[in-house]
Amino acid sequence: MLILHCPCCGIDADETELTPGGTAHLKREGPGSSDEAFERYLFLRENPRGVHFERWRHAHGCGKWFHAARCTMTLEVFGTYSAQTHAPPREILDRIAERRPQERREVA
Q1: Is 63 a member of any domain?
Q2: What are the DSSP calls for 11-57, one per residue?
Q3: pTM of the shown model
Q4: Which of 18, 33, 51, 81: disulfide with 29, CB 3.0–4.6 Å?
Q5: CATH number for the domain including 66?
Q6: pLDDT attached to residue 45
Q7: InterPro entries given for it (predicted)?
Q8: What is the rounded distance in angstroms from the CA atom of residue 5 to the CA atom of residue 42?
Q9: What is the domain extent for residue 86?
Q10: pLDDT tens digit string along 18-75?
């Protein structure tokens, strides 16, 4: 079972209390964008196995959004942080590099 620490309220919540929100730190395309840019955003994004930065909402708790860094293959969680952060904190990136030296994952 996936358990994430909500940085907003300090609770360790299991996946039944959370709602996924997709990729974090992604430039979302919408009205006013070109057809090519919207197609790239909607259909042509990479989805590799491994570490991802994701958005989560503590739906059955404080109700706030936060970001999490986790491995999609093993469900290993490297850390969670505020949704108002524009890039993953250095300590989380260092933790990923320490545990997964072979994986060079950049933020989108």
Answers
A1: yes
A2: -EEEGGG-EEEEESS-----TTS-HHHHHHHHH-----SSEEEEEEE
A3: 0.86
A4: 33
A5: 3.30.2270.10
A6: 86
A7: SoxD (IPR006279), SoxD_sf (IPR038561)
A8: 29
A9: 3-27+34-99
A10: 999 999 998 888 889 999 999 998 899 888 889 999 999 999 999 999 999 999 999 9
Residue 77 has a pLDDT of: 97
CA atoms within 13 A on the CB side of 31: 0
CA angle at 78 for the pair 22 and 68, rounded to the nearest 5°: 25
Q: For position 108, what pLDDT does the model report?
A: 46
Structural domains of the chain, count: 1
Name every residue whose Cβ is closer than 8 Å to that of residue 50 and which is 6 or more positions away in sequence: 71, 72, 73, 100, 103, 105
pLDDT tens-digit readout, 68-107 = 999 999 999 999 999 999 999 999 999 999 998 876 555 5
Q: Does residue 79 belong to any structural domain of this protein?
A: yes
| CA atoms of 2 and 14, how far apart (whole Å) | 6
